[in-house]
Design a protein that fits this description.
Zincin-like, flat, five-stranded mixed sheet, mainly alpha, single chain
Length: about 475
């Protein structure tokens, strides 16, 4: 499921607390919608394409590809960034501007050069008075998003003047040059051409003559110059894989990714770009998503069904069909396509959450109970997924399990770093749950980890709760 979370407004203290939460599981949020402003986007299909592009480059850079987080930022501006904690952000605007997979891989390789060189941490500009806290805040905002609180994380990035800070921070020309050279080496080591990175820079060479305020955000933080481009060109043209080309599979995936993003984020543009006369898979995919976004579910479903005729084992088409049906109140009809998507890709928690959400919104108690099981299974990989905890609270409330519902709500707030709300709901859960059960102990843990008041601690001590926790 593609999901898009707008920047919300939450307190700075609550967001910083998220950085202290142990898990860094990713989470989904509200359905995609066309709206202005930056947002964090989650989509299993796009994330897999990005990691297939990026992981070999991360490994060539000496980075553990399993620990590098790629954030897909829903923003039309052309930008990318690397920050503390091995995190890389790619704007959808930048992805849509790349003409080939090799161009996108070139940008990723360049950002990997910054990560491997420690540039986000070592930049001399970070030592300037007043800037270090902003960059630290930005890092915590990304951490908050990864910890299952995209709403909360978004605000911290906003409070850190996300795009402004990136532009103000920037890299030195020396760092840019070193990242260019590192990128060329990573691409060569993975048997890929550096031509794409040079092409990408060439396409925006005119940015060099603009004043700072008129440049794209990427070129404010990554200063571009003709000399820099020519130095890079000289290097990559001498490399043995300069003439390597993108594989047909890579080209197809890149087109699919761009079509999907265009359909979700710019549906009217997608319908003009991918005309009815174009019967290619990416074009029909983009149109189906665009019609869905423009609230024409029947036209969307007709296109999706035509795509499924020749792509019956594509889990993302079944996912999309289920998403359209669910969001247009055809909940029972949504169940079967969502089951198909999970069966085809059982290890994708986002798909399983979709199914769980559909099941708990049905009337039959057996369906609701099955939905609870699916959501719990998704949480095995996404422990701190705030949305999943919210759905579980909804299901438990429907089942009349008040203690479990309040505990799930406490988990939701805890994963978002909202300590006060987490503590309040955890205390309520303790009153309703059986003492010394795993659920009751977990509620006590949340209270103790959520800045309890002196009165809270006294109440726990009277019950012997703290001793019970420490005896485990």
């Amino acid at each position: 499921m593609t999901s898009r979370t707008p920047w919300a407004e939450k307190r700075f203290q609550a967001l910083c607390a998220v950085a202290m939460v142990a898990a860094l599981s990713l989470s989904i949020s509200a359905p995609a919608s066309a709206q202005d402003g930056p947002s964090l986007i989650r989509d299993t299909e796009i994330e897999e394409i990005l990691h297939r592009d990026a992981d070999p480059l991360f490994e060539a850079a000496g980075l553990d590809s399993k620990t590098v987080r790629i954030l897909l930022v829903g923003d039309k501006s052309l930008n990318a960034f690397a920050t503390q904690g091995l995190m890389m952000g790619l704007n959808t605007g930048l992805i849509l501007q790349t003409e080939t997979p090799n161009q996108l891989k070139g940008v990723i390789a360049h950002e990997a050069g910054h990560l491997a060189g420690g540039h986000p941490i070592r930049s001399a500009e970070m030592t300037r008075a007043g800037l270090r806290p902003m960059i630290l805040t930005m890092g915590l905002g990304v951490l908050a998003a990864l910890a299952g609180a995209p709403d909360a994380g978004a605000v911290l990035l906003g409070n850190a003047s996300y795009f402004g800070t990136l532009g103000a921070l920037g890299y030195s020309r020396d760092q840019e040059s070193r990242a260019d050279q590192a990128a060329a080496g990573f691409l060569e080591a993975t048997g890929q051409s550096g031509r794409g990175l040079v092409e990408f820079f060439d396409n925006f060479r005119y940015q060099e003559v603009f004043d700072q305020a008129r440049r794209f955000a990427y070129f404010r933080s990554h200063p571009l110059s003709s000399q820099r481009i020519e130095t890079l060109r000289s290097r990559v043209e001498r490399q043995s894989h300069y003439d390597a080309v993108d594989s047909p599979a890579d080209l197809a995936e890149h087109q699919i990714m761009k079509a999907k993003l265009e359909g979700f984020l710019n549906p009217q543009v997608a319908l003009m770009k991918y005309k009815e006369s174009d019967n290619s898979f990416p074009a029909r995919y983009a149109r189906a998503i665009a019609y869905y976004q423009m609230k024409e579910p029947d036209r969307a479903l007709k296109l999706i069904d035509s795509l499924l005729v020749d792509n019956v084992d594509n889990p993302y088409l079944w996912e999309l069909k289920g998403q359209v049906l669910f969001e247009f109140n055809r909940v029972e009809q949504a169940e079967e396509p969502q089951r198909r998507s999970v069966a085809l890709k059982p290890d994708a928690p986002l798909l399983r959450i979709n199914l769980g959400q559909t099941l708990i919104n049905q009337k039959e108690p057996a369906k609701v109970e099955e939905g609870v099981r699916e959501l719990k299974r998704a949480l095995l990989n996404d422990t701190d997924n705030a949305v999943t905890w919210r759905l579980l609270a909804q299901a438990y409330d429907k089942q009349g399990k008040d203690g479990d519902a309040r505990l799930a709500t406490a988990e939701q707030y805890f994963s978002m770093g909202a300590a006060q709300e987490a503590r309040v709901f955890a205390m309520r859960a303790r009153e309703l749950l059986t003492k010394d059960t795993p659920e009751w102990r977990r509620a006590t843990d949340i209270v103790l980890a959520s800045r309890p008041s002196n009165q809270d601690l006294k109440d726990l001590a009277k019950e012997g709760a703290t001793q019970s926790v420490f005896r485990r």
